[in-house]
Design goal:
196 residues, mainly alpha, Tetracycline Repressor, domain 2, globular
């Protein structure tokens, strides 16, 4: 039985959304197509109606994850006019380094959740990841003080510290929670007054 184009598009979107979360949680290689389709509420047999390969799905999932992250960063940057740059940036850093973010890779920033995974894959996923990073830096730089060139460098340095801290804290969490907490605290301390 054939389904409408609208229903097919909705099914594809469900698969991409499920993949964007599951790949951030466990990595592309750790998720079987059958499990992914089940999570999307669809049968395994329908996968190739929507995607040429698992890598093609992963590229779409990376794009989806970054689209949402960029959208959230853009929304945050609109608050600068009413709340001030320092408050918006401090709120961003506090949220990024929160326990909630560390405990929720499937719904948090794709920069920290997908970076290591992207590095293990071929050019298709690396290109999609690099495009997402570029788009995110462009928006995140709006949260940095100073001239345009300086804001971009600060954005890259700030994101690198945040991503590194979250990645290390996640990897230590459950094995050495004290070390995970120490990493987050050190990252937070490094930002106090650094962006003024």
């Amino acid at each position: 039985m054939r389904i409408s184009k609208e229903a097919a598009a909705a099914n594809r979107a469900r698969v991409v959304k499920a993949a964007a979360q599951m790949f951030r949680e466990k990595g592309v290689d750790a998720i079987a197509v059958a499990d992914l389709m089940r999570a999307a509420g669809l049968t395994h047999g329908g996968f190739y109606n929507h995607f040429e390969s698992k890598d093609a799905l992963a590229a779409a999932a990376y794009r989806e994850a970054f689209d949402h992250a960029v959208e959230r960063a853009e929304h945050r940057s609109t608050r600068i006019a009413t709340e001030g740059l320092d408050k918006v940036l401090t709120d961003y850093i506090d949220h990024y380094l929160s326990q909630e973010t560390i405990d929720s890779p499937g719904t948090s920033c794709p920069l920290s959740a997908l970076g290591t995974d992207a590095a293990r894959h071929g050019t298709l996923l690396r290109a999609e990841f690099a495009d997402g990073v570029r788009r995110y830096i462009d928006v995140f730089a709006r949260l940095m003080p100073g001239h345009k060139e300086r804001r971009r460098r600060r954005a890259i340095a700030t994101l690198s510290t945040l991503i590194g801290a979250v990645t290390l804290a996640r990897a230590c969490s459950g094995a050495d929670d004290g070390l995970a907490d120490e990493i987050v605290a050190a990252a937070k301390t490094s930002f106090k007054g650094a962006h003024r």
